[in-house]
Amino acid sequence: MTRSWKSSIRARYTVAAAVFSLIILGALGATLDLVVRNHLQTTAFDQVERVASQWSATARGGVLPRPIPAYAPVELIQVVDAGHHVVDASKQASSTVPLSWMRPPPDDRFQHAVECRPEGDCLALMAIRLTPEADAGVVYAARPEAELIAGGGLELAIGGAIAFLVGMTAYRTWTLVGRTLRPVAAIRSRISEITVSDLSLRVPVPHGDDEIAQLATTANQTLARLEDAVEQQRRFASTTSHELRTPIAGLRTQLEEAVHYPGDIDPHETIRNALASTDRLEAIVDDLLQMARLRQGDPAPPESVDLADLIRAEVANLPRRVPIAVEARQGVIVRGSRVQLARVLNNLLANAQRHAGSGVDVTLTVADGQAVLAVTDDGPGVPPAHRERIFERFVRLDDGRRRDPGGSGLGLAISRDIAHTHHGSLRVEDSPAGARFVLRLPLAKQAESRPGDGRGQGGPAGERLPMRCLKPSRLVDPRSVTDAP
């Protein structure tokens, strides 16, 4: 396909530079032409006026040599009478044909003009009327125009210089822009070779630290991130297919046994097992959908969330397994999605209950402008080598598989993704006993400026509460109190 010059940056820049230089140089050339022409003509008129004035004074005295002596550059001198008859002339001037038919009027005895002769040359001529009388004669003095301005030579020279300079400007612009865009062409060529199946190629980075080098560096960084993302997607797809294949295969085996051996299989037991496998599939699919929504980067509109109230609500809704002790600072406000933060807290509490031996502790404090929510159990804990691995998708340690065989292995991964979307973090930290999961979230601005907003504390919003109201309060699940000895 033939490309138009308008689609080429190199061609557009070259044309723009040529047009711009042509306009500038054209204006300069026209100015130079006027200045040079005016200077040469003024010099010529001064010379012929001086000679004409000299011989007009001599003619008024009545004494004129024959022929009139003349010296270069003013060699054409004539004295004519009122009837335009040549009275006297220099050797170079005609003795019969006057140099000009111009006759100055009595009130303007000095006149100059450019007279072009039939031979083709032009003269700078000065005519001086001897006296104001009607029968006064006229003295003519003339010289040829300067060769530089005769016949348009000056314009041709200036035009040639302009054309040369415009051509040089266009050539240099074409060369420099081509040299500048050469790395871009190399980058484009390399990017055209990159495919989804092979993202390991990188674009060449030119020397220096100019915009093109920064573009190439950014492109390589983007390609590296894209390669990592594609690799993660591949691993995710492989792991997901493996995790889905297991319950599907179990479900298929149960159904095939029920079909092939109807007399040996209890149909009710088969249905219960099939429902259990279906529940596991549903849990995996729901968690995958949740992760997809989080990865889309389009969260729900943020709202103010009081973490102490959220903890109370989630603890109250949990099924009774082990006692949960809550020590939460009041008035800790963050901005985000209440539903998603409730999902994180529910995952952490459910996980702690599964692994706890006798109880779970929940604390909420403020440190360095962040809300710090810690969920600690007294179970076997998480080995340091696995503290990051458990946040990977579908990763479940042996103890987790034993305690919750139907889990999807996505709860902690989803919880960390939610923490990241809220500009926070979720990690496992050291604990004297058991596992300690710590969620850190940035405080809302209103919470940073006001330790408490009055909600649930008996004070109006915005009122600064006494310091005793900011002390942590011990909250215990009312259902776990009945089980305490």
From TrEMBL:
Gene Ontology terms, MF aspect: kinase activity
Subcellular location as annotated: Cell membrane
Catalytic activity, EC: 2.7.13.3
Domain Histidine kinase, first and last residues per copy: 239-445
Keywords: Kinase, Membrane, Phosphoprotein, Transferase, Transmembrane, Transmembrane helix, Two-component regulatory system
Region (Disordered): 442-485
Protein name (database record): histidine kinase
HAMP domain segment(s): 178-231
Organism of this sequence: Nonomuraea salmonea
InterPro entries xrefs: HAMP_dom, HATPase_C_sf, HATPase_dom, His_kinase_dom, HisK_dim/P_dom, HisK_dim/P_sf, Sig_transdc_His_kin-like_C, TCS_sensor_his_kinase
SUPFAM superfamilies associated with the record: ATPase domain of HSP90 chaperone/DNA topoisomerase II/histidine kinase, HAMP domain-like, Homodimeric domain of signal transducing histidine kinase
Enzyme class: transferase
Pfam families in alphabetical order: HAMP (PF00672), HATPase_c (PF02518), HisKA (PF00512)
